[in-house]
């Protein structure tokens, strides 16, 4: 399966992803292909809608203390639901669908998530730190929400300005 990253302002990023009902080979192929493109793109998290599949599927691979990503730490979540949230934290987020832009975003510090694995087994995880932030970021994608939507009015204007500047530079390069 050959996947491409869908980038802002593509309207597909605004779609609401649908619950997965079949835990079959197609789902496993999607998950495997998502892992390949996430690693190739230097990502730590990816939602299926970012590769144009409107399914409630996301993957996470948080780096360890040595800042290395191990496949043993790969988490695949199907149909995730946050059942508990507490506290507050701020982190400078980025997104593979909004390349080269990073900004501080407020999130819940600790969350509890119910989800299914690739075989449909129910799982419960309590997360904090970067994993908690990443899960919240990726679940937002399943609802058509991007991290830039959470910026204050002035920070959003700063993003729009930087985005337009980057687009102009891209066009000049192509001429
Ligand atoms: C979401 O983000 C996230 O702009 C995953 O040029 C973000 O993997 C979770 C990336 C922050 C937790 C904290 C972004 C790679 C990767 C870029 C990513 C870029 C290259 C973003
Ligand atoms: Co993202």
Please tag this protein with its features.
175 residues; alpha+beta; Peptide Deformylase; 3 helices; binds 2-phenylethyl (2E)-3-(3,4-dihydroxyphenyl)prop-2-enoate; binds cobalt (II) ion
Report on this model:
With 175 residues, this protein is an alpha+beta fold. It has a single domain, classed as Peptide deformylase (Peptide Deformylase), CATH 3.90.45. Helix content is 30%, strand content 24%. The protein is built from three helices and seven strands. A five-stranded antiparallel sheet has the order 1-2-3-6-7. Strand 6 (110-116) and strand 7 form a beta hairpin. The chain starts with 24 loop residues before the first helix and ends with a helix. The protein binds 2-phenylethyl (2E)-3-(3,4-dihydroxyphenyl)prop-2-enoate and cobalt (II) ion (CO). 2-phenylethyl (2E)-3-(3,4-dihydroxyphenyl)prop-2-enoate (QAP) binds at residues 41-45, 91, 93-96, 99-100, 130, 133-134, 137.
